[in-house]
Amino acid sequence: MTVVLDYGINNLRSVEKAIQYLGHECSVQTDLSNATKLIIPGVGAFRRAMDQLAPIRDKLIRFAADGNPILGICLGQQLLFDSSEEFGETAGLGLIPGKVKLLPSDKGLKVPHMGWSKVSFRPESPLATELRREDRMFFVHSLYTDCDDATDVEAWCDYGVRFPAAVRHKNIFGVQFHPEKSGQVGLQLLRNFLLC
After folding, report:
1. Is 180 a residue of the active site?
2. Torsion sign, CA atoms 140, 146, 150, 151
3. 24 catalytic per annotation
4. Per the confidence metrics, is the pTM higher than 0.85?
């Protein structure tokens, strides 16, 4: 069963409805005992999110260590990394080596990055099955992830800086955009994850 993680600050229902629309069993909860896949959605601040996750942090790390697929969406993706510089240095889950950084505000572009942008996938990415090389996805974010290992990057986006739009480290996946708000293209990406 796919669990959409409820940690008190995220946009759960649109992700839940997308998974159900794709014909997959899905539950919104914090209990991982019956989960085979986990989706961590998110909108909000990194530090508050990590505070909310504190009671189940060890369970999340064990779930990942057992090889279960995890998909982080937007803030949920950022939480997978070692740390974030938002409002000062804050430790993350440490499931993907790297750091979360602020988008540059001196490039003549509005921050937060909000709207549809091209995402360039590596053709061999399991998330990219049935997607075109540069489909557009819907973004809303002020920070981006910086992977320690470039081979963890599944897709790129350009917005003042070239940043990872999608990442993968072993069984851990993340997307900076919102597939649940990206129409049929986003649904296909979620379908691809559910088939991993």
Report:
1. yes
2. negative
3. no
4. yes
Residue 134 has a pLDDT of 80
Which of the following is catalytic: 16, 86, 154, 180? 180
Q: What's the pLDDT score for residue 153?
A: 98
Q: Long-range contacts of range 116-121, CB-CB < 8 Å, 24 or more positions apart?
A: 117/157, 117/158, 117/159, 117/165, 117/177, 118/157, 118/158, 119/155, 119/156, 119/157, 119/165, 119/166, 119/177, 120/155, 120/156, 120/157, 120/165, 121/154, 121/155, 121/166
Separation of alpha carbons 115 and 136, rounded Å: 9
Q: Active site residue: 26, 74, 147, 157, which one?
A: 74
Catalytic-residue membership of 25? no
Residue 115 tokens read as 């709207």
